[in-house]
Amino acid sequence: MIRWHIIIHGRVQGVGFRAFTQQHAKMHNIKGSVQNKLNGTVEIDAQGKKKDMRSFISAIKKGTPFAKVTDIEIAEIGTLKNDQSFNIVY
After folding, report:
1. So what's the pLDDT on residue 45?
2. Which parts of the sequence belong to the Acylphosphatase-like domain (predicted)?
3. Which alpha helices (DSSP H) does 1-90 contain, by range?
4. What is the DSSP string of 17-32?
5. What does residue 80 show for φ and ψ, rounded to 5 degrees?
6. What is the pTM for the complete model shown?
7. Distance from C-alpha of 15 to C-alpha of 76, rounded to nearest angstrom
8. Which of the following is catalytic: 3, 36, 39, 54?
9. Which residue in 18, 54, 82, 87 is the catalytic one?
């Protein structure tokens, strides 16, 4: 089990990116959260099996039809024992 702090750069706000991310997190059994940041990025904390996390990252790199991902920053962080879902933070 691993947990990553992910920052997505590009045209990723106002294009359904958070809901898209949540949908793919559920498909890949990923727990955590996604939220828009004031600087125009999207921030994701994601936890799951390494294989599932790689598949999840591949999916979100593509984004929604109206999104344009230009860069992804990934940093490994400590896992959380009680993370049971994947939520959109407003």
Report:
1. 98
2. 3-90
3. 17-27, 50-62
4. HHHHHHHHHHHTT-EE
5. -115, 130
6. 0.95
7. 27
8. 36
9. 18
Q: Give catalytic status of residue 82 as yes or no.
A: no
Which residues touch 9 (CB under 8 Å, ≥6 apart)? Answer: 40, 41, 69, 70, 71, 72, 73
Q: Which of 72, 75, 5, 12 shows the shortest CA–CA distance to 33?
A: 5
pLDDT digits (tens, 9 = 90+) for 12-28: 999 999 999 999 999 99
- Predicted confidence at residue 71, as pLDDT, reads 98
3 is annotated as an active-site residue: no
Contacts of 33 (CB under 8 A, 6+ apart): 44, 45, 86, 87, 88, 89
Q: Which of 15, 66, 24, 76 has the alpha carbon at shortest distance from 42? A: 15
Q: Residue 16 phi/psi, 5° resolution?
A: 80, 20
* Structural domains of the chain, with CATH: 2-79 (3.30.70.100)
The secondary structure of the chain in percent helix, strand, coil, rounded to multiples of 5, reads: 25, 40, 30
Angle between helix 50-62 and 17-27 (nearest 10): 150
